[in-house]
Each structure stands twice: as C-alpha cells, then as structure tokens.
Write a structure and sequence with these properties.
This protein has 158 residues and is α+β, with helices and mostly antiparallel strands. The protein has 3 helices and 7 strands. A 7-stranded mixed beta sheet has the order 1-2-7-6-5-4-3, sandwiched between helices.
C-alpha cells in the first residue's frame, strides 16, 4: 500500500493508494484482523475502555451510553475491524464513510499488545477497505499528544 500523509489541526490525512498484491498484506505474526459482528458489541466497548483508560482526558462511560454514541449517525458495522491474538480481541478500529473520504474515528490497542504493529495492521486493513469503496482519501483523528508517524509506516513491523 502506498501512503502519503499530511497533518493539520484536525489530525492526519492520508492518500491511500493500492498496488498489486495489497490484498495479500498480512498482519503481524499471530494477529488476525477480522470484521465486527453484532456479537462483538460488548467486546468493542471493553476494548475501548481498556485501551484508553490511561489516556489523558479519557472519561469512562456506561455500556448503554457507549452504544448510544457509537450507533449514531454514520454507524456502519462493516467498517469496524478487530485484531485478535490467540482468540482474544486486543485491538479495534471504527471507520466511517464521509462524502468523499474515509474517516478513522476510533483506533485502540490494549497496552500489553502495543508496539507489535497491530494498529498499523488495522489501519492498513481499513485503508484497503476504504479504497475498495472508492475512498482514496482517509482522515485519522489524533491528538497532538499522540504521534501519528507510526501509523504512516508501510512496514508491517511498525
């Protein structure tokens, strides 16, 4: 996958270009990227709460409130992906389709699984999915305290 990145006050914007063989992009050893199903509602909630528990400004919410917020305008479960290791979900990405681009609204990996390339694999998977849906431009929301440079890497071990 070819990526070009620019940064602005709202986060990072990527131009996701596909190349032959991109469909064969594999996640790190032992990691499986899969699509979300309705049975994953609680898993997604618990992943989000745990992945961001130590993040500045994070405020836990109830499962009921989480679902109200998540299932609002633009919710499309086919744009949600989970990363599994040994049968347990350890990371997630929630995407949204905008008029002309894709948007990565949420991305999290459990602390004990960070640094293995799981977030990069989730991003790569979503970028390919957005490209298949005709969205070559993808926005990624991030805070200034969260560097986006590792997400721009096309190195699967990043």
């Amino acid at each position: 996958m070819a990526l070009a990145c620019s940064d602005d006050a709202h986060g990072a914007r990527y131009q996701a270009g596909t190349r032959p063989g991109d469909d064969d992009a594999r996640p790190p050893e032992g990691v499986t990227i899969r699509s979300y199903s309705g049975a994953d509602e609680r898993v997604l909630y618990e992943l989000h709460q745990a992945a961001f528990a130590e993040h500045w400004g994070f405020h836990p919410v109830s499962f009921e409130r989480w679902n109200e917020l998540l299932h609002g305008e633009g919710w499309d479960p086919s744009l949600v992906f989970l990363a599994d290791v040994d049968g347990a979900s350890v990371g997630y990405l929630v995407g949204f389709l905008e008029e002309t681009s894709g948007f990565v609204g949420m991305l999290g990996v459990l602390k004990e699984h960070r640094g293995r390339g799981i977030a990069t694999a989730l991003l790569r998977h979503s970028f390919l999915d957005f490209a298949r849906r005709g969205r070559k431009d993808v926005r990624l929301a991030s805070t200034r305290r969260t560097p986006t440079a590792p997400f721009a890497s096309t190195n699967p071990s990043a």
